[in-house]
Amino acid sequence: MYQPNNTLPVAAQNARAAAYVRMSTEHQQYSTENQLDRIKEYAARRGMDIVRVFQDDGKSGLTVKGRDQLRQLISTVETGAADFTFILAYDISRWGRFQDADESGYYEYICKRAGVKVNYCAEQFENDGSPTSNIIKSVKRSMAGEYSRELSTKVFQGACRLIQMGYKQGGAAGFGLRRMLIDQSGKHKGVLQIGEQKSLQTDRVILVKGPEAEVENILWMYRAFVREGKRESEIADELNGKGILTDIGRPWSRGTVHQVLTNEKYVGHNVYHRTSCKLKKKHINNPPEMWVRKNDAFEGIVPEQLFAAAQEVVIARSAKLSNEEMLSRLKDLLNLQGRLSGILVDECEVMPSSAAYRYRFGSLVRAYELVGYDSGIDYRFIEINKHLRGMHPKIVAEIINQLRALPAEVEQLPKSGLLLVNQELRVSLVLARHLITPSGSSRWVIRLEESHQPDITIAARMDESNGTILDYYLLPAIDMNADKLRLASENGVSLDCYRFDNLDYFFYLAKRISILEVA
Fold this sequence. Notes:
Blueprint: E1 16-22, H1 31-45, E2 49-56, H2 68-78, E3 86-89, H3 92-95, H4 101-113, E4 117-120, H5 131-164, E5 177-182, E6 188-192, E7 204-209, H6 212-226, H7 232-241, H8 254-262, E8 270-272, E9 275-276, E10 284-285, E11 292-294, H9 304-316, H10 323-337, H11 342-347, H12 354-361, H13 364-370, H14 380-404, E12 410-412, E13 419-421, E14 425-432, E15 434-436, E16 442-447, E17 456-462, E18 469-476, E19 484-487, H15 493-496, E20 499-500, H16 504-510, H17 515-518
Parallel strand pairs: 1-2, 1-3, 3-4, 14-17
Antiparallel strand pairs: 5-6, 5-7, 8-11, 9-10, 12-13, 13-14, 15-16, 16-19, 17-18, 18-20
Helix pairs in contact: 6-9, 7-8, 12-13
C-alpha cells in the first residue's frame, strides 16, 4: 500500500517543481496517469507547484537512449533553463532501471549540481543526502536494475520452453511462410499480418506455408542453387528481374537469398536465439551451441535432402580456401567496414559465407578472434559450458557405477536422462557453473528440471576454475518451490542444510537394506 513521506521541509514550501513519469510498455496505459496523481498529491502536501511535466511513454528504463523526455529534462537543467527547483519522480524505478547503479546516480548528480533536487514521492526515505538516505538509495537502484535482469531471464526461459513446444517466438515469418494464430486447443484462428500481434495470452503462433507462388519461388531458389549452380547474387538478380520482392517488400540481395538458403525454418525446424540483444546491450550473433531448437515443429517447404545439399554447397565453396586465405578476406572486410557481423560476411560477394566460417573455425567468434576483432562480448562462458556438457555424462556414469556397486538397481531413462533408482526414486544431476559478480562475490545458478519432475536433484557446484566439483546440494523436489536457485558461498541453514562435501549420504540413502538388517 502507498505510504507517503509526510515530512514537510520548509525549503520546499511554495517551490516550483517538474514531474517526470515513465511507463515501460504501451500496455501500461494508465501507469503514467497513476504516477502523476501520486506526484500531485505529494506536491500538494508539501506546498509545491508543478509547472512542467516530462513524460516518456512506452520507454524502457534500462538506458537513457530513446527516453527523449528525460534527456530534455536533463538538458533543461544543465543549460540553466529550468524554471523549477525540484524534480518529482514516483520512485527510483521510474527514474530508471539502469544496469549500472552509478548511471542512475550520475543523472541525479547533474541535477543536484545545478541546484535542482530530485525527490522520489513513493519511497520511504527522504532524499536529503544523509548517509542513511544514500545507503537506501543505492540499494534501491541496484534492486531496480536486478528486477530487469531477473525478468529478462524469466522471459528468456519461458520463450525457450515455448520454442521446444513448437511455437514461434517473435520476428517475421519470412518469405514463403506465414504466422498462424492458434488457440490453447491448437485450433487455427487466422493468419497474422505483418505488424499484427496476438491479443490473448493463451494464444500461440506457429509457422505455416504461405501463398503457393512464394512456396514455388522458395523451391526454385534451392534448386537453382543446388542443381544449376547459380550463386546467391544471380538468384537475387533473377527474382528482381521478375519483379518479385522479399516478404517486407524490398528487392532481393545476396544476403537475403543466402538467409533463405541457410534457414532451417524452411525444413520445418524451429530455431531460436541465433542472435540476442539483452537488456538494451549490443546486438550479437550467438554461436550454434547457444541456439534453442525444436526439429520438425512446422510443415516444411524444402525437403531435408535438398536443404542438406544446399548447406554442402555453402561449405564446399570455402573448401578450396586455406584457413589463412579465409582469415585474410575476413580481415579485409574488417578494415573496410570497421566491424564484423554474420550479415556483413554474407552480403560480401568475395567472402565465404558466415556458415563456412562457423564450420571451419568452430564459431564466428573464434574467427573474429583470429583476425584481432573484439566485439566487446566475453564469450568465455561458451567454452566453460562446453566443458561442463562434456563432464556431465562422465559424472552420471560414475554415479551409476557406484550405485550398482552398493548394490542398488539403477537405469537411465532414455527420454529425460533421469536416473531411476530402485524403481522408485528419479534423480537429476545438474552442474552449476561458478560465476563472479561485479563486486567479486561467488554465485551459482541451479536450474531445476521441472518438466521431467525428478524426486531429487543432485546439484554439483563447480569451483572457481569450473574444472572440478566444489560440493553437492541434494535438493528434494518436495522442498523446492522455484525452478531456479541462486546460491552464494553461504546461504543460511534453509539451503545449506542440503549441502554435502561428497555423495556418500546420497549413496547411503540409495542402498538397499535387507529386512533382517532393519530388524
